[in-house]
Known about the structure:
By secondary structure, the chain is of the alpha+beta class. The chain has two domains: about 5-190, Aminohydrolase, N-terminal nucleophile (Ntn) domain (Glutamine Phosphoribosylpyrophosphate, subunit 1, domain 1), CATH 3.60.20; about 195-545, HUPs (Rossmann fold, 3-Layer(aba) Sandwich), CATH 3.40.50.620. It has helices spanning about 15-25, 80-85, 100-110, 205-220, 235-250, 255-260, 275-285, 295-300, 305-310, 315-335, 345-350, 360-375, 380-390, 400-410, 425-430, 445, 455, 460-470, 475-480, 480-485, 495-505, 510, and strands spanning about 5-10, 35-40, 45-50, 65, 70-80, 120-125, 130-135, 145-150, 155-160, 170-175, 180, 185-190, 230, 265-270, 290-295, 340, 395. The strands form three sheets. The chain has a six-stranded antiparallel beta sheet with strand order 2-3-1-9-8-10. Strand 4 (about 65) and strand 5 form a beta hairpin. Helix 9 (about 305-310) packs across helix 21 (about 495-505) and helix 10 packs parallel to helix 13.
Amino acid sequence: MCGILAIFGCIDNSQAKRSRIIELSRRLRHRGPDWSGLHSHEDCYLAHQRLAIVDPTSGDQPLYNEDKTIVVAVNGEIYNHKALRGQLKSHQFRTESDCEVIAHLYEEHGENFIDMLDGMFSFVLLDTRDKSFIAARDAVGITPLYMGWGLDGSIWFSSEMKALSDDCERFVSFLPGHIYSSKNGGLRRWYNPPWFSENIPSTPYDHLVLRKAFEKAVVKRLMTDVPFGVLLSGGLDSSLVAAVANRYLADTEAGRQWGSQLHTFCVGLKGSPDLKAAREVADYLGTRHHEFHFTVQEGIDALEEVIYHVETYDVTTIRASTPMFLMSRKIKSLGVKMVLSGEGSDEIFGGYLYFHKAPNKEEFHQETCRKIKALHLYDCLRANKSTSAWGVEARVPFLDKEFINIAMNIDPEWKMIQPDLGRIEKWVLRNAFDDDQNPYLPKHILYRQKEQFSDGVGYSWIDGLKDHANSQVSDSMLTNASFVYPHNTPTTKEGYYYRTIFERFFLKAAARETVPGGPSVACSTAKAVEWDAAWSKNLDPSGRAALGVHEAAYEVKET
C-alpha cells in the first residue's frame, strides 16, 4: 500500500504551501516508507508515499506519460497491467510499475477506462494540458480514499483522513466503484455489476466454476518483487487462500524468485482457537509458519495507536484491528512487505452466523449485497489500515471482481444454511474445495464453524476489552452519552471508550460522520437484526451474539 495526497485549486501556491503539503504527506509515510514524491503544477499538487512491491528500483511516483503532461499518483496494484501494456504498444513506458498503465490508458480512452483495470486501487490523475483531473476508487473499496473541500475552494484527496482533517472544512469517504471528474463536476459510478441492483440471480451452482475462479484470483495476487506470505487464522477463508497459494506458488515468478515454501502468519492469545487451527493447517500444507502471541494488556496498550491508524470508533473494527496491527509489526520485522488475506468471503457467501436465521433466499441475497457494499467501512478498512500502519500490503483474493461476479450470480438457494441437507454456512465454498482425490485441506478444517477474527484470537480478548472499558467509563457517562455524542451515540461502555479516543485525534464533525452506526448482532446490518426478536436484546458484534447458533454463544440477557 502507498499513501496519496492531492490538492487542486489552491489559492496559495507559495513555497510555504508546498512545505505544508509535504508536512501533511508525511502523515501517510507509514503507508509508504520507501520513497516520497511530489509533483506541482500551478495550483495543483500530487504527493505520494511509496511502498515498493512491484518494480522497486524504477517505479517511484508520481508516474507520467511520455511528455509528462499526464501525472498520476496511485495507491494499489493493477494485476492485469501486462495485458494492458500489450494493448498500448504505441506508447513508451518509463518504468516496469504496474500502475504506469493508468496514465497511458487515460491518453487512449479519456475517463472511460476504469473498468479495464483489474486490481485494487485509488488514484488521482492530473491532465496538465487543461488542468482537469479525475480521482477513482476500486470496485468495493479495498484501498481507502477520502475527499475534502477547503475554505479557499480547493478540492483534496487523501488515502487517510489524518492528512486532510486539519485543512479541509468538510471531508467524506470517497465511494467505492466511483470516479470524480472535474470536467463533469461530480461523482459517478463506474462499477455496475449485475448484483448491485440486488435482483435475485438464478444461475445453478457449479463447484468447479467457483473453484477455478478463486484459484485464478489467488494466483494473480502472487505478483510481487518482494518477500510475501499469507495471514492464516486456521478458519476456512484464510486456509483456502493459503492452500491455493501453496499449490501454485512453485509455478509463479514469485516462487522462482523467493522460493516455493510459502510463509504463513498467525496471531492470538496463548491457547486461542486460531493458533491451534492455524498450526494444524500450516503443518498439513508444509508452510514456514510464524506464530505470534499477544496479551490482553498489550492489546489494550495499543488501542490509541490502532484507533489513530484505522480512523474509526466502530467496536467490531477495533476489536479485530488490534491483533492485526500487532501482527503486522512482527511481519514487517521479518522483512515481509505483502500478505494475502481472507476478507470478503463472509459477505459474499453469507458466512456470518446470523445468516442461519435468514428467512428466505431473497433476504439472504439482499443482505449479502448490503454487506459487500459496506465492506469499505469495515473489513476492507481494517485489513488495509492495520497492515499499512507498518508498511505492509494486504491483498484480498475473495474480492476479485470476476470472482465476486461469479459467486454473486449463484442462485442464493444454494447458499442458504440448511442443516437437514448437511449445509452449514458457506457450504458452496466448502464443497467447491472438497476434493477427495487431491485434497486442499483436512475435512474438519474445511468444515470448521465460522469464527470472527476478534473471537478466534481468543475469547478472553473481547472479555478483557469490555472489562477495561467498564473501568474507564462510569454509568453516568454512558447515561449521558446522547448529550455528549448526539451523532452515532455509543450504547455500551466499550463503544463510549473508543469514541473518546477517536475524538481526541479527529475533532471535526466530518470525521465522526465517516464512521457507520446502527444496531448489529454478530456483524449483521441493521436490517438483518429483524430476523430474530431475541437479537434486539443482545446487540453485540461478536459472533458469540448469534444466540442458538455459535457453539460458545453468550447467555440470553434478561429483558
